Amino acid sequence: MKKEIIFVMFIVLFFSQSVFALTGRQLVEKNKKLNSPDTVYHKVKMHIYKGKKVKVKEFELRTKKYDHSETKTLISFSKPSRIKLLTHTHKGKDDDQWIRLSSGRVKRIIFSAKKKSFVNSHFCYGDLSSRKIDDYTYNLLGSETVLGFKCHLVESIKKSDKKIYDRMILYIRNCDYFIVKIDFYINSKLYKTLENHDIRLIDGIMTPFKIVMSDAKNINRTELEIITVQYNLHMKKSNFIKEALR
């Protein structure tokens, strides 16, 4: 009887481990399936730290999902300038981006410019567009405790040259599959790191109220402080067209 019990326990352990041993791609898919709203409104304060200097900017972010698997996002600065950035995310092709400069001129962001700094911060234009699962391959590297959370480490490697980063390391929380940290690599070297802090559940949506993008040496950084959060508000389609930037 004792041998039979041990054998049964072994079978249970074997199958339970098989069921829950997710691949890197499966973990990313779990993250993508987390609750997300139809529309997003954020009021954000941006702090840019470079050496001893700190610049403060304020902007509003509006995002709207569309039935045909597209998402449109408008970032509108109120301080110190009136810059606007409009991003159209498409299924099966690259995103479109346009910027309205403080002069009022509107120009399209081409791929070669997506590595450039956005409003002199540590975010670039490419960071403000979408990342599609099928554009990368994934490897599960192991686990680690990061920012106080037990996380899966998933390596994400680009398939196409039309991506800014060669690879990324995603730190996905074991408890809910939320990404708390991303390491970005260019030419096999760590380029910068993003961290999500003060994560709260707002209307069923996990929301980081502080987002930090720092350089590879962790000396200079940009912090985004979320002041206001509202989900699933009514938003007009006309607010998200290129002509609205003028």
Can you walk through the features of this model?
There is one protein chain. This protein has 246 residues and is mostly beta strands. It has a single domain (23-245), classed as Lipoprotein localisation LolA/LolB/LppX (outer membrane lipoprotein receptor (LolB), chain A, Clam), CATH 2.50.20. Helix content is 11%, strand content 50%. It contains two helices and 13 strands. The chain has a 13-stranded antiparallel sheet with strand order 6-5-4-3-2-1-13-12-11-10-9-8-7, covered by helices on one side. β12 (205-215) and β13 (221-231) form a beta hairpin. Mean pLDDT is 90; it is low at 9-19.
For this entry, give a set of tags.
single chain; 246 residues; mainly beta; outer membrane lipoprotein receptor (LolB), chain A; 13-stranded antiparallel beta sheet; 50% strand; globular
